[in-house]
Amino acid sequence: MEGGAMRGLFTAGVIDVMMENDIEFDGAVGVSAGAAFGCNLKSRQPGRVLRYNKKYCRNWHFCSIRSLILTGAMYGEEFCYNDIPYKLDPFDLETFRSNPLEFYAVCTDVDTGKAFYHKCVNGDGDDMRYFNASASMPVASRPIEVRGRRYLDGGCSDSVPLKFFEHKGYDRNVVILTQPRGYRKKEEPLRPLFRILLARTPAIRKDLQRRPYVYNRQLDYVDSKADSGEIFAIYPDSDLGIGARETHPDNLERVYKLGREKMERLLPELREFLKG
Predict the structure, then answer these.
(1) 255 pLDDT band (50/70/90 cuts)?
(2) Which ranges in 124-248 belong to alpha helices (H)?
(3) CB count in 10 Å sphere of residue 187
(4) Number of helical (H) and strand (E) elements in the chain, helices listed first
(5) Cα-Cα-Cα-Cα dihedral of 88, 40, 19, 224, to 10°?
(6) Burial of 226 (0-12, 13-18, 19+ CB in 10 A)
(7) DSSP string, 89-113
(8) Please, is 168 exposed, middle or buried when counting C-beta atoms within 10 Å of its C-beta (0-12, 13-18, 19+)?
(9) For a pLDDT cut of 90, what percent of the chain falls above it?
(10) For residues 57 and 74, is the Cβ–Cβ distance under 8 A?
(11) N or C terminus of the chain: which is more exposed, having fewer CB within 10 Å?
């Protein structure tokens, strides 16, 4: 499950339909929003992602420039990764722990610029910190420290970790993208400012400078694997039309419904693919 901030509502719609139709997997890996939202696949909580995003999208503690100025993170760490999962819309830790599905969150090591793949087994403590780190966008977030290492958004180093799962031995992979097929990333408009904005994280700066090339190669790989039938790829039909900071509940629900509708159409094909 790739990231894409609020484009992740598309992914939430896809996996909710999977859960409602008893489609289960041996493993899952999420990047950024794909980790923060996708972990609900392991806790088996369809509807939760849409519910709390709609309820809190206008709360400045959830996501705002004010939060960025006051806390150092656009998506408030305390509110998003403590108040919501433990108090306001509880994460089902018991189910998360008992579900045999192996769930990985992808982060980027700030000092090396390399991807780090954390296997989440408890759903709280360090796991929640890695969910936070995986979705912590450079410039819009400060690095998250876990076990003596600092991490940022997994999308900096591995936006679509298909090869990671293939190397682990998973041989019937379903890939959920949040950009339509044919999309290719252009050079970052802020690239001239990277040297200033990311002066304290040079490895991250290098990752972002080469990200369009790396990401586009990953998309080429996914497309070729999908065309050969080796994987099952799920793409939005068109640009989702939603930004990283969305304050309109109706737009969140619209993108979520696009994911649901797409998965509902593809259910027969997916079931056939998973039969082997």
Answers:
(1) very high
(2) 126-134, 162-167, 194-197, 202-227
(3) 10
(4) 11, 7
(5) 150
(6) middle
(7) S---HHHHHH---EEEEEEEETTT-
(8) middle
(9) 95
(10) no
(11) C
Residues 90-102, mean pLDDT to the nearest whole number: 98
175 in the Ramachandran plot: left (φ > 0), alpha (ψ -120 to 50) or beta?
Answer: beta
Please give the Cα distance from 205 to 209 (Å, whole number): 6
Band (82; pLDDT cuts 50, 70, 90): very high
Classify 21 as helix, strand or coil.
Answer: coil
Polymer length in residues for the chain: 276
Instruction: Check if the beta carbon of residue 93 is closer than 8 Å to that of residue 99.
Output: no
Tell me the pLDDT tens digit for each residue of 236-252.
999 999 988 899 999 99
Tell me which residue has tokens 């939430």. 12
pTM as predicted: 0.96
Residue 107 corresponds to which tokens in the numbers above?
Answer: 């982060």
